[in-house]
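Ticket #4471: complex job returned nothing on first submit. Input attached below:
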Amino acid sequence: MSSMKTEVAILGGGPGGYTAAFRAADLGKKVVIIEKEDQLGGVCLNVGCIPSKTFLHGAEILRNAKEGEDLGIQFSKPVINIKKMLTHKESVVLKLTNGLKSLCKLRNVQVLHGEGKFIDTKHITVTVPGKGDDGEQDIIVEFDDCIIAAGSRPVVIPSFPVADPRIWDSTRALELPEIPKSLLIIGGGIIGLEMGAVYHELGSEITVVEMADQIIPGADEDLVGILSNTIKDRYKAVYTSTAVTHIDNSGKQLKVYLKGENSPESLAVDSILVAVGRVPNSNKIGIENTGLKTDERGFIPVNSRQETGIPGIFAIGDICGNPMLAHKATHQGKVAAEVISGQKSAFTPMTIPSVAYTDPQLAWMGLTEREAKYTGIEYNIGKFPWTASGRALSESSTNGLSKALFDKNTKRIIGAGIVGKNAGELLAEAVLAMELGADAEDISKTIHAHPTLSETIGLASEIVDGSITDLPGQIK
Amino acid sequence: MEKILVPDLGGFDKIEIIEMFVSEGDTVKKETSLFSLESDKAVMDIPSPFAGVLKKLLVSAGDKVSPGDIIGEIEVPESDTVKTTDEKKSVLEQKKEPEEIAVKKTTEVQVSPTTPKDVHIIPDNFQSRDAVFHASPSVRQYARDLEIDLSRVVGTGPKNRISKEDLKNYIKEGLNSGGGGRISSGIPTIPLEDFSIFGRVEVIELTRIKRITGERLSAAWLNIPHVTQFDEADISDLEAFRKEQNMNVLSFIIKASAAALKKFIYFNSSLGEKGENLVLKDYINIGIAVDTEKGLVVPVIKDVDKKQVSVIMEELKEKSDLARKGRLKPEDFQGGSFTISSLGGISGTGFTPIVNAPQAAILGVSRSAMKPVWNGTEFKPRLILPFSVSYDHRIIDGAEAARFTRYLGSLLEDMRRVIL
Ligand SMILES: Cc1cc2nc3c(=O)[nH]c(=O)nc-3n(C[C@H](O)[C@H](O)[C@H](O)COP(=O)(O)OP(=O)(O)OC[C@H]3O[C@@H](n4cnc5c(N)ncnc54)[C@H](O)[C@@H]3O)c2cc1C
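Support reply: We reran it on our side without changes. The output follows.
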């Protein structure tokens, strides 16, 4: 048992944790990161955003090769080397995690690799696994301030068979254990559908089961419709309003029992990916020794300064609530570090954008049309179909739609949604417009380069201010 | 156990709880008022969404709440629980249980429950989606640095944007006036004196409604060139009729005003943004200034021209009751196109009300009195009602105002004309 003292202890080295650590160090604090895995980077770098996007890039190449035929370019059937795909993914992850390591060195941020648990509101014990002959060792870290950034993990459904290698969570799926002939994805949210896109291009026959009445339940149905029509053609089936009641794993194939409006009673598949959500890791950090109270879902409540209510303890990222997104975690990390350093910061975004990196991509921010209707907000809307975009046509990507919502009273943009190629990149303009309080005319009079897909946002705004010429005119 | 959430408050955010009506352990009915909130404009009661026993209350008076916040838990008797019609949902919940139970256990061990309270006085400065003024992220931060509450700042940038300059001016104003910074109007501020030299003084806080009304009145008084036209009406016949019908005079005045506004449409208009246009309104919604303990509030009676006097009277009674209890909803204040301020119940022979901007005119009603009136042969005792109309001289000229007040007077003298 040894002990050490630091000004700021950060529990968890994911995107929230390392961002907070670097910001605090830059503001002059002595910082220690406690991370149980061997690598920094958390879910995002190791088993989340980055590996999934690396594989999605591969999937995109495969799809482009297929679609080349329409343009008069034909490739021979691709040969997929899973081992190489995996080493490539690992090298991408390693580049990033090594980058973090050197950023830690440069800033003098110390990293303790071991599981950390609070003993009280000023101390964490870190159990550092033994090296060589040395057994494991406990280090007590005393801190002035602590930022809890311990993230989340996939929900496990206990009624499903445990420890069957054919039933995966997202982490397992990103290890590409095999390319099953048939893969059932339970949960039609962002993570499930992204993994579906990868395995589909790698050759699996995909079935998706979603409990809500549409896939990606948080987004507007007109946008989701375009995505779901596309994948319905490609996949074996997409069953919405359907639940999996039971999985029988005694046979060669997994037998899955369903309960739903239009679903069959059962299905036989080779593998299953369970992607029904994530739970915060708050019950694994000795939180009971701090007096901190989580909400009923296990999230640690915080205010806009990321304070938990216990002086000197802050929480950021997945562990303090939805949406569980890396860009939320990093921004909250900065706020916590700044508040600790005496700055008057607060986490006050008008919106946190969401992106599904599916094919086509689906991205939205601000209010959805459904929310606006539900809350009775009066709005003007511009919807620009990509069939009228020159760039979309030349990229064979007319499968898209851009829309923007503007408050009738203030005229300012209150929401936007895009489905189509690169929707995630295109959305950034709308987020900036919202934070800066732009109205339709501000956006429509901002010159968007031609021919680009970004024009579709400008054109959706032109529909609202009435200046559109790319669509049949509305005579006033 | 059901959670109680703060409902949508018509676009308001972070509203203060001013009074709690219940405490933990209370049995409440559905729709029982749990507590009341005070926003800029109104006090609202929040009703219980369920019937049952209040097991937990997470808020107390003085806390600020926003829509969606959990304020407590209520134990609903088994038979009352709304069974999840969505069976699929319950399947998911069932499945998720072990994870959640694990989490719950930890919760139960906790000794002293804590929730992050806003102990700091530094405002967060969230930019609300529907606020009039907009501050970009860097301006929000700058305001936090200067500890300025952005909701008190007027944006002078294009499209109502708040600039860093606006924040600096706000501070300068505050320094110059010795109090909280105010909207710069270019007029010299009134220096305060040290009153305590002359005797004991006490400083009390103005109610929120008073502060906000004060700001609006100064803005109207500074921006609008006011003129007030005085007139009087012989309401002897009306008085006899209303007594017989057991009705009040104000309801007739409201109805007569609607008829006068229909004829003199400029009194039911607003001046457009740089004073280049006039917005004429097709609707006649009349606000009635009601004096309450917390200050002046103005509930609006909508579509007065289409309502019978008896309906107007009922609505007037209902709204002034609600106003006095502080229970008006935001929509009750919105959409007024003309205002009446009546001091008839108190005293006075005339006054000059301030136009309720951006409206064009306001009617002030004073106390009626018996007066000798020469009818050509003799003096007769008649009941005379003095009234005044203040108006925006940019919209209405004097002769027209005189015609308006006379027309209104003639309607009150013979209410039959209202139906003509
Ligand atoms: C497949 C997948 C794809 C995703 N794609 C995206 C995407 O495209 N875009 C996006 O924004 N988000 C994406 N996410 C979500 C994103 O990964 C998370 O929101 C993000 O990683 C949260 O960051 P965090 O810092 O809060 O926590 P985490 O990244 O979860 O990091 C928490 C860290 O704390 C460590 N830890 C936990 N407990 C302890 C302990 N007791 N002691 C020491 N260390 C501990 C963990 O090992 C982990 O490293 C994806 C997630 C998944 C699973």
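Chain B has a mean pLDDT of 82. Closing as resolved unless it happens again.
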